[in-house]
Amino acid sequence: MGSAIHGTELTLLILVTLVALLAVLAQRLKTPYPIVLVIGGLALGFVPVVPDVALSPAFVFLVILPPLVFASALNLPWRDFRFHLVSIAMLGLGLVVFTVAGVAVVAHIFLPGFDWRAGAVLGAVVSTTDTIAVSAIARRVGMPHQLLEIIEGESLINDATGLLALQVATALVVSGRPPVPFAGVLEFTWLSTGGVGAGLLVAVLIVRFERRIRTTPVQMLVSVATPYFAYLLAESIHASGVLATVACGLYLGRTRSEIFSTEARLDARAIWNTIDFALNGFVFIVIGLQLPGILNGLRPFHWPRLVVGAAFISALVILLRLIWMIPATRFSYFVRRRLLKQNVQRPNRGEIAVMVWSGMRGVLTLAAALSLPVVTQSGEPFPHRAAIIFLAFSVIVVTLVGQGLSLPTLIRRYVDSDCASLEEEERLARRQLLEAALDALRAFRSPDVDDAPADLLERYYRQRLVSLSTDDTDERSIRQDRVYQDLAWKTRQVQRHELGRLRERGEIREATLLELERELDLADLRWQKVS
After folding, report:
1. 132, 141, 244, 297: least surrounded by Cβ within 10 Å?
2. 188-220 pLDDT, tens per residue?
3. Structural domains of the chain, with CATH
């Protein structure tokens, strides 16, 4: 027992070390870390000293998937999600159905031994997309935020619909019975509505509980546990746990500014960023490490045929996305512009090409493939299980590595960056905040109160307002503000040095140092954001 625990600890330590080293390498190469981690995992999988790591589907679905989905939903603004809902639904729902049907038909025709049911299972496995690499690329090269919001929303929805489709397709293969349309519609309806209802119920209860507490550690504990509450509640009533987690995250994303204290918001951001990176880093490197085990399960098969099949399915998945994307974007534009009266522009060819090329596959695809049952109800082996796992793995590598490495070039060439517009939007918002503060100061003045503090604060706000001006006549004031920020930063570094000296001399306790250091850190963070 002790040796097994030590072996697990050693494996985890090696994986954490590899993730950290490959993440640093990705930063040096200026390449999204998921791509480097997958390639590194592929290479390390054949190194004898690297331990064998099996990716358990139960571990992925119950431990890794809920917080990853929750974090994505939490950071996707509900207003933007609702605004782009038609476009998201066309991809998150329509494209999943089109992919499942297209792969089922083509696999039945061109892949030896595949009937339409096995093809539908393969189509459901490869229908889910992963936006981690896309988001990393988009934020670095300035992909328009409207496109990124649609792609992130698509990933949240098709995670759920892809798993629902897989559940239905797998049931058809396992039972061996023909599908019953009415029963299938009822099951899909319950999985969807039950999942969303469970997620919203958990979210409402969490909001009521969070309003009654103001202890940051308790709030953080509840926040980390929330996706598991939503996921397990939905699964316990045989609904979609993924949809429950998505609904819960979207709801809480709207309320966290109200229910969290200032300290809790800062801590929550740090905690969820760490969880998101750690889980994704672990998963992407383990995806690469899976290759030796997958190849061992394919030894009786004919290799040239498998390689050709992998290339064929990968190309088919990309082609199906292209075929669907052109009419889907036009239909979405018509509905949003003509029926919903939204002020949106028709996507041009460059934007459509970027959205097509952003359909990368990730951990959920591999976990879905590995979760396929080994035998059917009749006791027969699940048809083409090993081949489906290999084909799914191939689609992940081709889309994540091939498309991921070429996507930045595609974005730079065919899509106009909106970094400048985002900066302008932030600058205008800052001006409005400062003007609101100045108006409030005038209202707060009273004959019975000393005006000196208000004058000092008003002078500060006016100086900040001038520094955000675009008028060339204010260039001197802007230059003065930058000198002011630089001096403030230098004096804070002196204060840090003095804190360290006081600790070394034993004049302050560690708790005092941590509190004062936190104040300096917050000041640094604030000036980094406004400068």
Report:
1. 297
2. 788 889 999 999 999 999 999 988 887 888 888
3. 2-417 (1.20.1530.20), 423-530 (no CATH)
